[in-house]
Each structure stands twice: as C-alpha cells, then as structure tokens.
Design brief:
The complex is a heterodimer of chains A (490) and B (201). With 490 residues, chain A is an alpha/beta fold. Chain A is 32% helix and 19% strand. Chain A folds into four domains: 3-36, no CATH class; 43-133, no CATH class; 145-319, P-loop containing nucleotide triphosphate hydrolases (Rossmann fold); 332-488, P-loop containing nucleotide triphosphate hydrolases (Rossmann fold, 3-Layer(aba) Sandwich), CATH 3.40.50.300. Chain B has 201 residues and is α/β, with parallel strands linked by helices. In chain B, the strands form two sheets. In chain B, strands 1-6-5-2 form a four-stranded parallel beta sheet, with helices on both faces. In chain B, strands 3-4 form a two-stranded antiparallel ribbon. Chain B is globular and about 50 Å long. Classes of the chains: A alpha/beta (490), B alpha/beta (201). Chains A and B meet through strand 7 of A and helix 5 of B. Chain A: Keywords: ATP-binding, DNA-binding, Helicase, Hydrolase, Nucleotide-binding.
Chain lengths: 490, 201
C-alpha cells in the first residue's frame, strides 16, 4: 500500500493509523504494521436507525451496543416529551393537554408527563429519551441499479395520464393530488412513478390510515418490485432490521420516522382518522425530508384538500371512470322508518328482510353497513336466523380478515359491518345496503366509498346499492350528487 | 388526575355523564369507563378462596386491562375501577395494606400499581411490608411458587401488633404472594389477616 493511499484513508476514514514513532520504541519490530484505530458502525444498525426516531432503552439491539454508539456521537438524543414551553410529544407531535397524563415517577422521583396518544407504541414519559441517527443515508450507487420492475399489466388511457402527471410532479418536487373514483385502479397508477423514484435512489413511503390496506398492498408491491427490500409496518408487525427503500406503513407508524423519506405517498388521504387527527398529519410532515413531495391519493378529497391543492399549486389528476370503463352504480333511497326500534323488538324491518332474501335467492354476496356496533350486535342473531353463515365484523374483531376472506370465497352469504369495511376491499359481484344512512357517521365521503364497493369487477360492473334511512340527510344527497356528477363527466 | 374524564379510558368513546345533585353534594368519584366496557368485566358471584375476597374474573377484557395498566404503564387506568373499589373498601375498619413492589421493579414500572388503584379509589392505606426479592410470581411454575422462600419482611412491627389487617393485591392466582405476606404479618404479631384482590385468576 503506497503512502498516498494510507494518507487518503487516514484523512477520509480515520480507520488506520500507523503507530507513531515516539511511542513505538518498545515495539519497534511491529513498526511496519498498522493498528485498528477507528470505529466502523455496523451496517445493520445504521440501516435500521436511518430516518427513524426510536426509544433509547427499547431497541432491537443490545443496550451496551446502543450506548457505545451514543458515546461515539452517532445519535442525537431528545427527551420523549418536551415540557417547555408547553407539553409536546416528540414522537407523535401531540400537543393536546388532555392527552397528557402527569404522575409522580418512581424512576426520576419527579413529576413526569406521558402522552396517551401514542401509548400503544410503548409509553414514553418526559424522563425517557428518543434517539435519532445523525449521519447521512447509507444509500450507495450500487443499490440504484438493482430495482427491478416486473409489472406486466396495462394502464388505461386515464391511468397512464395520471401516472405521467404524478411523475412530473415528483420530479419537480411538487405535491400532487390524484382524485380518482373508487375502482379506477389507483394502486396501478402509483407503480411507475414509484419505480422512477426508487431508480433515482430515493426512499419512498406509501402511508395509509388502515392496516387492512397495508396488508392488501404489500403482496402487490412485492410482486412488482421483486429486487428491493419492502417493509410493511403496522401495529403488531415485526421489526425488520434491514434498510428498506420502500416502506408501506399505516400513518400511525410514521410516528417512528423523522426526516426519512424523499417521496411520500398518502393513500386514501381522506380516510378516518387521517382527516380528524391533526397529529397524524403532522406525522406525515415529520416523516418526510424537508421539501420532499407528498402525493395524496383519494376518491373523495375533502374541500380543505382541494383548496390547498389550488392555493399551493400542486399537481392534480382527475379520473372519473373506472378501469373497466363502466358507470358508477348510483345509490337508491328506501325509507326504513324507526329501524332502530324494530331491531330492538327483535325483528328485522320488512323491507330489509325482503332485500336480504332477494340476495340469497340470487346467490349474490352482500354487505350491510350499520352505524354503530351496538345496533349491529343486536341485529346479528336476527340475520343468522335467516341464514346461519351471516356474520358481523367491526374494528375490534380479531377475525376480521378471515371473515372477509370467507365472504370472498363464497363460504359466507353476507356480512354485517360497521364503516370499517367502507374502503379498500374488493368482492366480486357484491351488493350493498346501508342501514341508517341518515346517521351522522355516514358522511358523504363514507357513503361514496361504500357505494364504491359495488361493481368493481369487470364481469359484474353493476349492482344494487341501497340507502335505508329514517329521513334523507344532506350528506346522502351530496354523495348521490357527486356520484351522478362523475357519471356525467366527459 | 389532571382533568375531568370525558372519554372512556378504555375505548375512547365519549361518556355521557349526568351531573346532578348527587354528584354535587356527595362528591362521588367520576365515571371513567363506558357501560359497554364495564359489561366486558365479569364479577365474581361466589368467593372461591377462604379469607380472600376477589371482585372480578380473569377474562379477555381483564387481560387487556392488565396489559395496558401494568405492562404499557398507562397509569391513568388506575381509575378504571375507582367506584367499585371505593364502594367495597370505604367502610373498611381493618388496616389496608397493599402488597408492595420491589424497589428495582418499582423503578422500571415507575409506579406502584396497587397503591395507585387505592389512591384512585381514595382509600387510605399504609405500607408495613417490604418485598425482598424482585422475581415475579407470574414467570414461575406452580411448583416453583410453592417452594419460594419468604418474600416479605415486616417493618413498623409495633403498629400492626394485635391489629386486624386487610392485604390488597391485584390478582389471586395460586395465592403464593398473599400467603407469604399473611405469614410474615402473623409472625410479627397481627391478630387477623385477610386478603382482597381485584381479580381472581
């Protein structure tokens, strides 16, 4: 090794240092050798922590190792809850006072505060600390060429146009809004722009509010991008230690990232709880790198989002047609007076009963949406009396996935559900009824999404969607109007 | 507690609380969970252990509660059972002694879970025991539990001498913890020692 190379190594990496002559008198025989002097961070640790914000005491690595890295200055440290000037959770950026609990902490012998908003990810109180990797990304040029794009599907003209527009926006580092009706094939639109970003060595995150959607997207992305590491992050998922260039995550999981992504895609941008929860919106902002573009994808953009798009001059793509080119099924209204009372008298309202029997006769799978879990639980045994395979699902149901699968495989004739199944699911030839469409939980966007479950299959492009109601609300009218508008478009 | 509770501590649904003369004049403890969540806990109808009163059966809901309270350290959940504990223990004549935590465990958990339950129910209590080992009964087999050497040491012996005592713990599984504490207290000169647990496992 020539001296110049050594000096370069010394200068840039500081890994090796020839033993200095003044000290080496004792061991002059080994003078020619160089001794290991520096510290090389383990790739695994570097990969894991890049872009993440993580609890100091609870990492997937041995504590002593983490402490060594901290001592060597590889991590930034911050208290988990900032107390001054006002309580703020460093992880989920929550600032709402009622969400903080103060107590006398036996560990630090002082009053401690913790944030209940993100407690499911492990409690963090003001005497706990979070660590963030300081050094830059471990991206190397080698990784860039390794992205493999194995998607053979074909986009429709509309999809292609939207994909091109999104790509242009991302290249210009500009935010983008894709407004496409339910069943327009939004996921396919994302493939090509994501591929381009990955090829450019960018780190991409697809965030969505619901675990179900992450689970559905994950295998599809895995198939399309076979060479790169993709992580699916949701509550209860395993921690992978590799560096993933593409991450699919629920918006909650974004709490654990900071300054991490070059491209952020928010799928179902309007879905509960994303619209309601300020903290989640801030989490999206926190997880992306400064000025990294965000692409919002939704079938029902809120007015706020549309205004923001216009004022801040984001890119905008609009698709009014489904991928199979057929019109959207338009909901019809049917009065179901005092449905709640009838259910509590242990009866199914006659019109609803007729509807269900019709579906059973025609052998069509069906979904019935209920406004509350309580009412649904009241109704379930009554429906099971007609047809024993009918089941109910709600957000706290651990067997939700299986039940939906069974409906898809035609092992079940129908499902009762709350709004939890309003989006992200596709069942061939499904027919839908909404019981109590007048209830405030059924906002116009929820009703549009629910109507969007019908007729998604190319071979069954239509179907029945009924709003059973106790009085027509503005939200119902608005949903119907918007669907009709889409059908008149072009 | 920092503020009045407006949402169910367990499911975040809004609580529709009534506020009337009774609440104003009698200073009842606040409602903290919704009726739906309350329903999921099952009361013990008939006491199964001698000298021990338990309030609830161990079921899925209780498992979830313990997980959130003891392992996720959500200290505010101490208030979930405030009313019932208050109701059960408010007229207690005996001296209430919670099972203590080992100091090291206390530091990792950051709070003593039984003390907090009692505080939330505004029941006065006193510590006369010290836990000697920091091993957890929950991690042991039945045989190991039965062979455990004395877990507790009594402090302030003079105060409990000849007294009637009530030991409070969160869960009764094999009874090892309560028996050890009971033995230690009886040896130190207590007259009677009974047990009270939130859950019968």
């Amino acid at each position: 090794m020539s001296t110049t190379t050594i000096s370069i190594i010394k200068k840039h990496y500081r890994l090796f240092r020839p033993i200095s002559t003044s000290k080496s008198t004792a061991s002059s025989s080994s003078q020619k050798h160089t001794r290991y002097y520096g510290f090389i961070p383990e790739p695994a640790i570097k990969n894991f922590f890049t872009g993440r914000i993580w609890s100091r005491m609870n990492t997937p690595y041995p504590q002593s190792k983490i402490e060594t890295y901290i001592k060597r200055g590889y991590f930034d440290i911050t208290p988990a809850v900032i107390t001054e000037p006002k309580l703020k959770c460093r992880r989920c950026l929550n600032e709402q006072r009622p969400k903080f609990i103060s107590f006398h902490c036996a560990k630090c012998q002082k009053t401690c505060h913790y944030c209940r908003h993100c407690i499911t990810m492990g409690r963090m109180c003001s005497c706990d600390e979070l660590i963030m990797w300081k050094k830059e990304q471990p991206r190397s040029r080698m990784q860039k060429s390794q992205v493999d794009f194995t998607w053979t599907g074909k986009l429709t003209v509309h999809q292609q146009k939207a994909a091109d527009e999104l790509l242009t926006s991302l290249k210009q580092n500009r935010n983008h809004l894709i407004h496409a009706v339910c069943g327009a094939g939004k996921t396919e639109i994302l493939f090509a722009p994501i591929y381009a970003s990955l090829k450019a060595g960018k780190r991409v995150c697809v965030a969505t509010p619901r675990t179900d959607v992450v689970l559905e997207l994950y295998p599809r992305f895995q198939q399309v991008f076979q060479q790169i590491t993709i992580h699916a992050l949701y509550g209860g998922a395993q921690n992978d230690t590799q560096f993933a260039q593409l991450i699919l995550a629920t918006t909650h999981q974004l709490y654990r990232f900071e300054n991490a992504f070059d491209v952020m895609i928010v799928d179902e941008a309007d879905a509960f709880p994303y619209t309601y929860d300020e903290a989640l919106q801030r989490a999206v902002m926190k997880a992306r790198k400064a000025k990294a573009p965000i692409a919002f994808v939704t079938a029902t953009p809120s007015t706020k989002l549309l205004i923001q798009q216009r004022n801040e001059k984001w890119g905008y793509s609009f698709i009014a047609r489904r991928f199979h080119g057929q019109l959207l099924p338009v909901p019809r209204y049917q009065a179901l007076w005092n449905y709640e009372k009838v259910f509590y008298k242990e009866k199914i309202p006659q019109k609803l009963k007729n509807w269900v029997e019709q579906r059973l006769q025609n052998q069509q799978p069906f979904l019935i949406f209920f406004p509350t879990i309580e009412l649904m639980e009241q109704a379930t045994p009554l429906f099971q009396h007609i047809e024993p395979t009918i089941e109910s699902v709600h957000s706290e149901d651990p067997d939700r996935k299986e039940k939906v699968m069974q409906l898809r495989n035609e092992e079940r004739k129908g499902l009762l559900t709350t709004t939890i199944l309003e989006r992200g699911i596709t069942i061939k030839n499904v027919q839908v009824a909404v019981v109590g469409a007048d209830n405030p939980v059924f906002t116009s966007s929820a009703l549009i999404q629910i109507s969007g479950r019908v007729g998604r299959n190319m071979h069954y492009p239509s179907g029945d969607i009924v709003f059973f109601h106790h009085g027509i609300t503005m939200e119902m009218d608005q949903a119907r109007k918007k669907i009709l508008e889409m059908n008149y478009y072009e | 507690m920092n503020k009045p509770i407006q949402h169910c501590l367990l499911c975040e649904r809004e609580l529709n609380q009534s506020f009337g003369w009774e609440e104003l004049l009698r200073k009842t403890l606040p409602q903290t969970i919704c009726p739906r969540c309350e329903q999921r806990f099952h009361r013990v109808e008939q006491q199964q252990e001698e000298g021990v009163v338990s309030l609830y059966h161990y079921n899925e809901a209780m498992k979830d509660f313990l997980h959130r309270y003891k392992f996720l350290h959500d200290i505010v959940l101490a208030h979930v059972f405030n009313r019932i504990l208050h109701e059960q223990l408010k007229n207690e004549k005996r001296l209430v002694i919670p099972i203590p935590m080992h100091l090291e465990n206390l530091k990792t958990r950051t709070f003593a879970h039984i003390d907090e339950l009692l505080k939330a129910a505004s029941i006065p209590f006193a510590h006369h025991l010290i836990k000697l080992s920091n091993e957890q009964q929950a991690l042991k087999t039945r045989e190991q539990r039965l062979q455990t050497p004395q877990l507790f040491e009594v402090v302030n012996v003079t105060e409990i001498k000849g007294g009637n005592l009530l030991l409070v713990d969160d869960i009764y599984t094999t009874g090892t913890t309560l028996n050890h504490a009971k033995r230690a207290l009886l040896q130190a000169g207590a007259k009677t020692v009974k047990g009270f647990t939130l859950i019968h496992g």
